[in-house]
């Protein structure tokens, strides 16, 4: 029972760190990664329209108009490819990698701590019935029904932060 009293502040710290990392990731994606989805959609629509127009004008007497539409469609496709590359190669990717690295370091630190403080909390076995075995992963006390392991708590916090804040 003394281990659980020590682990309660640790559980709150894990929750806070997880939410802070998720908020930071969301902020980086929102403000530093260019959002070109609308422009990509418009370009894709225009390319498909020009391709249909070129196909319908593909007759000997309207060959010049068909070739012009095809050239314009090819130029727009190149612009579309450039937009897609720009979005994926944004400078914010370094910051997003930093967030991923911090998450990995958090889980490594928690794996180390789980040897010392294996149980974050004890719940009634009925309350965690379908997930009881999963929640006790890393708890060290495999026979303790309703135990919540440190790693399981961290994974649960990660999923809750993703659900509450949403992944953008």
Compact summary:
InterPro entries: Get1. The chain is mainly alpha-helical and 168 residues long. It has helices at residues 2-31, 37-56, 63-88, 92-113, 132-135, 150-165; strands at residues 119-122, 147-149.
Task: Please tally the helical runs, counting DSSP H or I stretches of 4 or more residues.
Answer: 6
Q: How many beta-strand segments?
A: 2
Apparent shape: elongated
Beta-strand portion reads under 5%
End-to-end Cα distance = 40 Å
**What is the averaged pLDDT score?**
78
Structural class: mainly alpha
Share of helix among residues? over 70%
Q: Which descriptors would you attach to this protein?
A:
transmembrane, single chain, 70% helix, Guided entry of tail-anchored proteins 1, mainly alpha, Get1, endoplasmic reticulum, protein-membrane adaptor activity
Describe the structure.
This protein has 168 residues and is mainly alpha-helical. The protein has 2 domains: 2-33 and 92-165, no CATH class; 37-88. Helices cover 70% and strands 4% of the residues. It has 6 helices and 2 strands. The protein has helices at 2-31, 37-56, 63-88, 92-113, 132-135, 150-165, and strands at residues 119-122, 147-149. The protein has a two-stranded antiparallel ribbon with strand order 1-2. Helix 2 runs antiparallel to helix 3 (63-88). The model has no long low-confidence stretch (mean pLDDT 78).
């Amino acid at each position: 029972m003394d281990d659980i009293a020590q682990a309660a502040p640790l559980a709150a710290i894990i929750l806070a760190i997880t939410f802070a990392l998720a908020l930071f990731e969301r902020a980086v994606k929102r403000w530093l990664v260019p959002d070109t989805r609308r422009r990509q959609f418009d370009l894709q629509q225009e390319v498909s329209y020009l391709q249909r127009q070129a196909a319908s004008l593909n007759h000997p007497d309207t060959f010049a108009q068909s070739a012009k539409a095809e050239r314009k469609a090819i130029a727009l496709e190149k612009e579309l490819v450039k937009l897609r590359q720009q979005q994926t190669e944004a400078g914010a990717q370094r910051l997003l990698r930093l967030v991923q690295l911090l998450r990995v370091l958090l889980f490594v630190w928690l794996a180390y701590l789980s040897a010392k403080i294996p149980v974050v909390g004890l719940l009634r076995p009925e309350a965690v019935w379908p997930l009881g075995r999963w929640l006790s992963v890393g708890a060290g006390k495999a026979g303790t029904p309703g135990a919540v392991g440190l790693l399981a708590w961290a994974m649960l916090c990660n999923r809750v932060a993703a659900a509450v804040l949403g992944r953008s």
